[in-house]
Specification:
The complex is a heterodimer of chains A (about 325) and B (about 350).
Chain A lengths: L5 E10 L6 E11 L4 E5 L6 H9 L6 E10 L2 E2 L5 H7 L4 E4 L3 H4 L6 H13 L3 H14 L5 H4 L9 H13 L5 E5 L7 H18 L2 E6 L2 H5 L1 E2 L1 E6 L2 E7 H6 L4 H14 L33 H5 L5 E2 L5 E2 L11
Parallel strand pairs in A: 3-8, 3-10, 6-7, 7-8
Antiparallel strand pairs in A: 1-2, 1-4, 4-5, 10-11, 11-13, 12-13
Chain B lengths: L12 E11 L12 E12 L4 E5 L6 H8 L7 E6 L2 E2 L5 H10 E4 L13 H12 L4 H14 L16 H13 L5 E5 L7 H18 L2 E6 L2 H7 L2 E6 L2 E7 H6 L4 H8 L9 E2 L32 H5 L4 E3 L5 E3 L10
Parallel strand pairs in B: 3-8, 3-9, 6-7, 7-8
Antiparallel strand pairs in B: 1-2, 1-4, 4-5, 9-10, 10-13, 12-13
Helix pairs in contact in B: 3-4, 3-5, 4-5, 5-6
Classes of the chains: A alpha/beta (about 325), B alpha/beta (about 350).
Chain lengths: ~325, ~350
């Protein structure tokens, strides 16, 4: 394997004072290779969006990185100054947000918002920037791009706005795009179009994409490696094939059963019992222990380490071996 | 509900050419409005007693408007609807209030639909205060019964909405809707704000309640997969019109409308082997047209592979294909089983 483009080591993000701090992301490590479609799956409260914001240097003020390092292209970026981070953000690292209607500025035309990025980071002349934006609009499949240049965000549909967001992310030929739930706000038929667009652009431009979603089935169609998170910790990671054909964590297996349940008609839908614990009620040991069907005494007291299974396949479960998918 | 309603051929709702148009304010007084959205356009279907009818479609298709019309939260522009044999759209005063006690709704957003200043008990008891003569003790007992019915513990009664997770809040919303023993329950996207593992819990709960209480349910959702599990019959809507209606298995396995097929094929399926879907073409670029300016003829024709000139000019007829399989398409017969 080549040198990773992004490496996150033992990242912990906490909220609250040192006396009463809660680790909403706890000791998460992973890496993204150049040119790789990588996925992070987790339900609400899993900390997946917080990791994305931490990488982009956009964490809300109340949250702090309390330990760990984020390396981008071998350089530490979590301690960069605002100024240096601004140079990186938008140019090397780009982000596509969930809600395209709030991520775009409503008082500027969509074209002008992309021109701003190009002029700032690439120093293009207004004319050259306009030409480039129209080219980008075409690339992301916006019909008659020259006409849409002067449209305001409200004149576009949700799907079109998300295409604009993707065009904006591509502006400066970034090396990593973080797509945080890029299709959650969109209708089913449009969701598929946008995902295929992202997959095509990933292939064409060779940009690494970190794809964050709650939708296991969706992710399974578009990534090569995947990381499953639960309540701020890693549950399982590995190649998509390993994780989705031989899940080695009861949470992954439960999510897969829920996803399968939807595909076949059955009397009762499979569920994972219980609720995701809120951060102030995280169990002491494994955070999934309160909902796990395979729980043992040790799970309740000591957080499980990461067990390496096959190549690159890791599981944070004591019972990763004897636990089997029925 | 415990009192046995005799199963008769007469449906609970009989809906004929139901329409709802939203118009902007005219620029000048006494002039017609310049823009009209036909949010619901000439719907015709029945809702049978004791069944769960799923209503599916993408944003702007009119599914929520339809559900609001049926419980008279919105007034229809035109149409003919009977509820229990009585003309629903003409109900007024005393009769309308009596109708409203028999219908309830569970909302999509479990965060916005509960008053943050009221405890779970107060939320659930409110309809009992406004619409029954129960004493405080009786109400307390009824709330405890409802909490148990939706799978919450008695100690949850004194907690406030922010102390609950999304799934638990939705359970409170369901308990509130059931407080007055309604006959007809509208569930408007009740699980779309919830995580996958919690969605299944709520769907199972609604299914149990529907069966145990013999409720008639209209289940509105954009997610076909969820609807399949809870519905006896499913109606698919597109831009204000219903395009297909049949029993759940027929919709999923023998659909005869190109839009239903598109919707079915765009639901992501778990890929066992992982990796990238080989087909990464984004050939289907078409957008959902604006309801302000829908395409002529069949609304779906710009996105439809079977479209002919006839589809562009002539609105298809809402017709029965066979055995209560209703479809709005000129070319339904051309679609074979998948």
């Amino acid at each position: 394997m080549s040198k990773p483009l992004l490496e996150v080591r033992d990242l912990t993000i906490s909220i609250g004072s040192t006396a009463a701090k809660i680790d909403i992301v706890d000791g998460v490590s992973f890496s993204v290779q150049p040119n790789e479609p990588f996925g992070i799956v987790g339900e609400s409260g899993s900390g997946k969006s917080m990791i994305a914001l931490a990488i982009m240097g956009l964490l809300p003020k109340a949250l702090k990185i309390t330990s760990g390092t984020i390396l981008f292209d071998g350089k530490e970026i979590q301690s960069l100054s605002q100024r240096d981070m601004q140079r990186l953000r938008g140019k090397e690292l780009a982000m596509v947000f969930q809600e395209p209607s709030t991520a775009l500025n409503p008082v500027f035309t969509t074209g002008a918002q992309l021109v701003e990025v190009l002029r700032r980071h690439e120093g293009l002349s207004p004319k050259a920037a306009r030409a480039r934006v129209i080219e980008l609009f075409g690339q992301v499949g916006i019909p008659s791009p020259a006409d849409r240049f002067d449209d305001y965000p409200h004149q576009m549909s949700g799907g079109m706005r998300q295409r604009v967001m993707i065009a904006m992310a591509l502006c400066c030929n970034p090396r990593l795009i973080i797509a945080d739930e890029p299709t959650t706000a969109l209708d089913a038929t449009i969701q598929l179009q946008i995902m295929r667009l992202l997959a095509r652009l990933q292939k064409e431009t060779g940009v690494a994409v970190m794809f964050i979603s709650h939708d296991l089935a969706l992710v399974s169609n578009f990534v090569r490696r995947v990381q499953v998170m639960y309540a701020g910790r890693l549950a399982e990671c590995g190649t998509a094939e390993a994780v989705f054909s031989t899940p080695a964590h009861p949470y992954t297996e439960g999510l897969m059963r829920c996803a399968y349940g939807l595909e076949d008609r059955m009397e009762r839908l499979p569920t994972i019992e219980g609720q995701v614990p809120t951060p102030n009620r995280f169990p002491k040991g494994c955070r999934f222990s309160t909902r796990c069907a395979h729980v043992q005494e040790v799970c309740r007291h000591v957080p499980p380490p990461r067990y390496a299974l096959a190549a690159g396949h890791e599981s944070a479960c004591y019972r990763h071996i004897d636990f089997k998918t029925e | 509900m415990t009192d046995q309603t005799p199963i008769t051929a007469e449906p609970m709702f009989r809906i004929r050419s139901l329409s709802k148009h939203f118009a902007n304010k005219p620029l000048l007084p006494f002039t017609p409005p310049t823009r009209v959205v036909r949010a619901v356009d000439k719907l015709a279907f029945d809702i049978h007693r004791g069944e769960t009818l799923g209503l599916v479609g993408e944003s702007g298709c009119g599914k929520t408007t339809t559900s609001r019309l049926l419980i008279r939260l919105l007034d229809a522009t035109s149409g003919d609807v009977t509820f229990d044999g009585k003309p629903l759209l003409e109900l007024k005063g005393q009769e309308l209030r009596a109708f409203r006690r028999q219908v309830q709704i569970v909302f999509q957003d479990p965060f916005g639909s509960l008053n943050p200043r009221m405890t779970a008990e107060q939320v659930i008891a409110e309809p009992l205060i406004t619409s029954t003569e129960m004493t405080a003790t009786e109400r307390r007992a009824r709330v405890a019964e409802l909490l148990d019915l939706v799978g919450l513990a008695p100690e949850h009664a004194s907690r406030y909405p922010h102390q609950f997770s999304g799934g638990q809040r939705q359970r409170i919303g369901i308990a509130r809707a059931l407080a007055l023993n309604p006959k007809f329950l509208v569930c408007d996207e009740p699980v779309s704000a919830l995580d996958l593992s919690i969605q299944a819990q709520i769907v199972n709960l609604l299914k149990d309640i529907q069966r145990d209480l013999g409720l008639t349910v209209l289940f509105v959702a954009h997610d076909l997969q969820v609807v399949r599990h809870i519905s006896d019959r499913v109606g698919v809507m597109y831009l204000g019109r219903m395009v297909e209606l049949a029993d759940s298995d027929t919709i999923f396995d023998h659909s005869r409308h190109p839009y239903t097929r598109t919707l079915l094929s765009s639901a992501p399926r778990l890929r066992h082997e992982g990796g990238i879907t080989p087909d990464t073409s984004d050939a289907e670029q078409a957008e959902i047209p604006s309801p302000l300016n829908p395409p002529t003829g069949c609304h779906f024709h710009p996105r439809c592979a079977l479209a002919t000139d006839r589809c562009r000019s002539e609105v298809p007829e809402w017709r029965n294909l066979k055995g209560d399989h209703m479809v709005l398409c000129h070319h339904a017969e051309q679609l074979e089983d998948q």
